Amino acid sequence: xxxxxxxxxxxxxxxxxxxxxxxxxxxxxxxxxxxxxxxxxxxxxxxxxxxxxxxxxxxxxxxxxxxxxxxxxxxxxxxxxxxxxxxxxxxxxxxxxxxxxxxxxxxxxxxxxxxxxxxxxxxxxxxxxxxxxxxxxxxxxxxxxxxxxxxxxxxxxxxxxxxxxxxxxxxxxxxxxxxxxxxxxxxxxxxxxxxxxxxxxxxxxxxxxxxxxxxxxxxxxxxxxxxxxxxxxxxxxxxxxxxxxxxxxxxxxxxxxxxxxxxxxxxxxxxxxxxxxxxxxxxxxxxxxxxxxxxxxxxxxxxxxxxxxxxxxxxxxxxxxxxxxxxxxxxxxxxxxxxxxxxxxxxxxxxxxxxxxxxxxxxxxxxxxxxxxxxxxxxxxxxxxxxxxxxxxxxxxxxxxxxxxxxxxxxxxxxxxxxxxxxxxx
Amino acid sequence: xxxxxxxxxxxxxxxxxxxxxxxxxxxxxxxxxxxxxxxxxxxxxxxxxxxxxxxxxxxxxxxxxxxxxxxxxxxxxxxxxxxxxxxxxxxxxxxxxxxxxxxxxxxxxxxxxxxxxxxxxxxxxxxxxxxxxxxxxxxxxxxxxxxxxxxxxxxxxxxxxxxxxxxxxxxxxxxxxxxxxxxxxxxxxxxxxxxxxxxxxxxxxxxxxxxxxxxxxxxxxxxxxxxxxxxxxxxxxxxxxxxxxxxxxxxxxxxxxxxxxxxxxxxxxxxxxxxxxx
Amino acid sequence: xxxxxxxxxxxxxxxxxxxxxxxxxxxxxxxxxxxxxxxxxxxxxxxxxxxxxxxxxxxxxxxxxxxxxxxxxxxxxxxxxxxxxxxxxxxxxxxxxxxxxxxxxxxxxxxxxxxxxxxxxxxxxxxxxxxxxxxxxxxxxxxxxxxxxxxxxxxxxxxxxxxxxxxxxxxxxxxxxxxxxxxxxxxxxxxxxxxxxxxxxxxxxxxxxxxxxxxxxxxxxxxxxxxxxxxxxxxxxxxxxxxxxxxxxxxxxxxxxxxxxxx
Lengths: 426, 278, 263
Description:
The complex is a heterotrimer. By secondary structure, chain B is mainly alpha-helical. Helix content of chain B is 73%, strand content 0%. Chain B is built from 15 helices and no strands. In chain B, helix 2 (59-67) crosses helix 14 (243-263), helix 3 packs across helix 10 (195-211) and helix 4 crosses helix 7. The relative contact order of chain B is 0.14. Chains B and C meet through helix 1, helix 5, helix 10, helix 11 and helix 12 of B and helix 1, helix 4, helix 5, helix 6 and helix 8 of C.
C-alpha cells in the first residue's frame, strides 16, 4: 500500500483556503448550542453545548444509536436540527446549505460515485464550484493542480483512471479522503471511515489519518463506535450516550477520570469492573464494604450507596500459591491497608497476546483482571485474591451514576470538560 | 446437459426433456413460423401445405410496400413508440426522484394510488382519454396518439423508484456536500446510475407501444398517423382479404421487434422480468 | 374519476347535449343480458387460461432451472418470444392457419381423416380457440416469473435434501413446488386481471365477439357500448363495474396473497 509517508508534505497545508485570503485555514471551531434533533417523536440528539476546538482532531464516540452520526450530519448540513444553532468558525451556519459551509465529509461506505473515475470523483466538487461561480471559482488548471496534489498526498497517482469498483477497500477510503480534502475544508468530517477496512489496514489507516490532520492543520471530527480509535487518534474526545454528550476532554483524562459509569464502562477495554458497595466510617476516610469486597478510601461524605470501579489492568493478583506480580503473600486475615481487596474463583482465562484476561466469579459477582504476558497465569478453578491501590479506584454515585470525589487524594479537581455534563459531587 | 450421464435412464430422461421443450417451442411459435413461411409463397400458393416456401418470392412484400402505405405505417409506429418511451422515461424519472428525494407524509397515499393505477385496465381509461383528446381537437394527431399513453407510466415510476432507493443515501449526501443542486445531483449522479433501469423501462415501453392496438384504432385511424398494428386491417376492408400481402405486412409489423429481441434477448427478458416483478 | 362521472350520464360522445340519468346506466348494464353474459364469458376465459398461467409455465420453468446451460438459455429465449410478438400479427397468423377452407390445421386434420372444424366460426369452439391463442403470452411471461422465483430459492436446503437421499422428483414435488405457491397465487391473480385485457386484441381482430356473442368479454363489451353504440355513459358504467369487481377481488384475495407472499 502506497502511503503518504513517502510523500513530502505538499503546499496544501499552507496554501490559501477556498474563500479565504488567509494563509492559514479559516477558523474551523464547531459549536453546538442547544441542538435538538427528533425523528418521529424520538429525540436522537440533544446537545446543550458542545465546543469542538479549532484545529483539533476530535473523536466522537458512543454506542450505535447514540446520535453521534446524526450530530456529524447536522454539522455537514445534511440534517437540519429541530432547534438550536450550529456555528462553524464563529459563524452561524444553521441555515447555510451543505455545499457552502466549508465542510467536507468521508462517509462510512465512502460514497464514491461508481460511474466516475478516481480523478473525476475527486474533481466533482471543484467542477461544480467552477460552474456555479465562474468568477471566483477554480479554473481548469487550478482544478487539475489540486486534484494532482490530493492524489499525491494520498498515494493515488497510479490509480487516477480507475473506477471505484476496481479499487480495494483501503484505496477507496483514500479516494474518499482525497475527494474531501481537495476542497480544502475548514472542517473535515469522518463518519466511521475505518469500519469498512479489515483489521490490519485499519491500524495503518489510523496513523495515516493522524498524520493527514497534522499536515492539513484544519479541524477534523471523526465519529466512531470503536473505543480504541477513540482513545488513540484524537486530541479531543467526545463521549456520547442516548443523544447527549456524556463527557468531553483529552482522551487520557477521559480514560483516567470517567465522568460517569457509562463513560467508565464504554471507554477502555476490557471494560471497567463495577461493584455496588456500602460506605462505613473509617479513620482513614471511609470503608466500602460489599459481599466479598472491602476497600478503604480517603474520601469523606459519601452517599448511602456507592458504585466502586477499577480497571482490569490496575489490579494486582494474589493466588494461594504465591504467584503475584506484587510478591505479596496472600493471607487469610482481611487486609487492612488502603485500597481494594477482592476475592474470586477463576472461571475463564483469555490469552490475547500481550496480556491475559482472567474472568473471575466471587461473592462480589463477576469481574475481570488483566495480567501482563510475563506473569504465570493461574489455572481455571483456582481461588485468587486481588488488590487495587486507592489511587486506581473510581467512585460513582449509584443513584446518579456520576463520579464522586477521587478516592486517593483529599479533594479531586474537576474533570476537564469543554462542555456537556459536568460531574457532580466533586 | 445430456451426455454427461452415462446411465441409460438419465439419457432417456434427457431425451424426453428435450422432446417436450422442443414440442412446446414449436407449438407456441408454429402459427408465426407458418405465416412467415407463407408470406414468401407466391400468391397462388399461399395456402399450400408445403412447410417451406418453394419457390420463395418477395412478391408479397413488394406488393404490401408498394400498394399499401406500409412504410409510412411503420414510420408512424416508430415515432409513436419512441415518443411514448421518451415521455415515460422523463415522467417516470422525475416522479420517482421526487418520491425518493422529497419524501413527505402524503407519500404513502400517492404511492398507493400509483400502485392501484397499475392494475386499472387500460380499457377502462380509454373513454375519458378519448373524450379529452377529442375535446382538445387532437384526434388523428401524433399528440393525441402519444400523450394519453403516458397514463400507463405508473410502472416506470415504481420501477425507477425502487432503483433510486437502491442508491446509497450517502452518495446523494456526498453530492450535496460537494455543492450539487437537486438538478445536478439528479443529472450527474442519479441518472448515470440508473442507466440499466432506464434501459429496461425503455425496452418494455417501446415494445408495448409498438404492439398497442386499441388506442391507435380509436384515436388515429387514418393512415397518416395510425400504427402498423391498426393498418393491417386495411388489407381486408379495402381490398378483401389479400392473404399474401397481409401476411407479409404482419411480418413487417412484428419482425423489427423480434430482430431486436434476438440481438439482446437476455436483456429484454430481464427488462420484462424486472417490470413484471416490480 | 372522470369515468365515474360519465357513467352517470347519457351521452353519445360527440353531441353537446348530455343529461344526468343517475344510476340508469348501471341498471341497464345489470338488466340487459349483454353485460352479465360478457362477464360470464370473461370468467370462462380466465378458467381456460388458468393452467397456462400456472401449471404449464411452472413445469417449463422447473425443467429449464434443473439443467442450466446453453440449451436451456436458448429454450428460454425462444419460449419468451410470444411476449414481444405483436398481438395483431399473432392473431392474423392464427387466423391464417385456422382458416376453415385452406388453413394448415384443417388440411392436416383432413389428411389424418379427422373432422375439420371452423374453429373461430363455431360458437362451441371459438372461445377456446381465442383462449389458446392468448395463452401463449401467459406461458411465456409467467415462465420467466417462475424462473425468477426459482432463482431465489435457497439451494442449500435442496442440497440438504439431496444429502438426505431424496430423489430429484421428490425434491421437486415436496420442496420446490410448495415454495412456488406464492408465485402461483400471484400468477392466478394476474391471470384474472389480464385474461380479459389480453384476449381483447385477439377477439377484436378475429371474431369481434361473435359468433353469437360467444367470444364476448367484459372489455369488448365496454368498448362496444362506447365506440360502436356511441353510448359513453353505459361504456363508462361498464368500466367502473370492471374496476370495482377487480378491486373487490383484489381485497378479498389479499389475505391469501399475504399468506403466500414470498419473504
